[in-house]
Design goal:
Helix content: 55-70%
Shape: elongated
Strand order of the largest sheet: 2-1-3-4-5
Strand content: under 5%
Distance between the termini: 76 Å
Oligomer: single chain
Amino acid sequence: MEPDVKRDERILIIDDQSLSQSYLRYALEQLGYHNISYADRAQTALNLCKQNNYELIICAYNLPKGKDGYQLFEELKATGLHKLSCGLIFISAETEPALVHSVLELQPDEFLAKPYVIRDLQQRIERVLRRKQQLRPVYEQLEHQQYNAALNLLNQQLTQAELHKLFPLFLKLKGDILLLQQKYTEALTFFNAMLQIQPFGWARTGKVRCLLHINEEQQAFAELELMLARTETRLFALDCLSELEFRQQHYQQAQQHILAAADIAPRNLLRQQKLLQLSRLNHDYEMQYRAARDMVKFARHSMHEQPDLYFNLARASIDFALSSEDSEQQNRLNRQATLSLNTVQRQFGQQNLSDAQQVLQARLLYLQDHREKARQLLAELSEQNEIESLEDALDKAKALHEVGLSEASRKLFNRISQYCRQQQPEPAFAAYLLQEQQERSAMAHGPRELNNNAVRLYQHGNWQEAFSAFSLAWQVMPKNAGIALNLWQTLLTSPRPLCSALQRQQLLQQCQQLIESSKLRTEQLQRYEQLKQKHLSKLA
């Protein structure tokens, strides 16, 4: 039998609505709880948690003037203000799947949807407090990283038949501790044994973690494919599959998996950051922009809000605008980049332009066809500044190349590469750096001029050079329908073969798929229809 709940637990209610606070107070008092504190906003709650230890926190999602309940819960966990022995019940009137999945990733003890009845609240509270009370000695050992002692206590409790209702929780915690101890072979045996008893979702995820750590990737792949079909393990499976595909340099598949995960639980900023990095590797500028925008959106007021998020949004806006042929879209993205830079100055007090801001100002000038002004602004920056931010340094190297300062760009790329060899940056960034360095060394011009130069080569009958230039332009801007049309036209009208028959057929199909799924300008559409009619028999 489970232990009785005491009635002297300290409880913190976080809710800005006075009616909700009153209802919760009335309900708790009816249940015999009287040691209750209240907070109507996140900062007040943070201060109270710094000053007091609570046995239970009841946190509402909607909070005024700053952090919402999700951001508060995230900060409580990240800063250690929410201890393992403290129960947390998350309450929300908003139950859209994206929010619910995001909250559940933070692992509250309970999620309660408004409106609720006192009986339901009582069941949740007492269930949480019983578990926390029973596991308090285990949690105390875990907080001091005394893992063996915690395991011994759990094993003792697993021998007490009267606690049978709590056995699944005990077993899950035992698996978590084995993973913390990095005893992956022992943990794998344990998780397999648990799956023989019941297909616990936590045992499946634990098994995959072990397989990945002992380099059994093929078996992990097989397990993850099965986990995709189960709601409780789908998110974990998508994250892991993305990582495995990335390791095998299957960047498109990796992006598809992490995008699906971000659609399920979009408020996880680490996941959004991975989406941004993968979309850059895939030259998917629209998705890069979306991820950067969502990071700013969900970080607003949170502990994650910082200038770099706005810089990355400005960079993504510029990259997307440079790849677009839509003048209205370019103007919108231009305004977004400018707004992001202004936000940094206004919100973070950076009135004097940093090098990162000056580089972005130069890239905006380049985007607005003020190339010489951009070149002059970049030329004023010191070449020998120490690398403090890899993203800032990489953006500068890209900007130097765009305005034609190719030698300065090459030198900076080399410095960044040397720095990375010493610092070992995040793998996705390292892959993107190498890709940018290789592509820009192959381009005499910036990506924007590459297509225009290829058009001139085509008009002068330099078929092979035009084909190479269009191919490179399409490689760095694979969703640009205008470049796809130019490459398609070059392949169809060239008087001699420009590549192998198989490559030609593949390129023609890929270009045509993009062209027909895109919105073309009137001139482009007319040109496409004329070419299609003229070469229809050849394509058949």
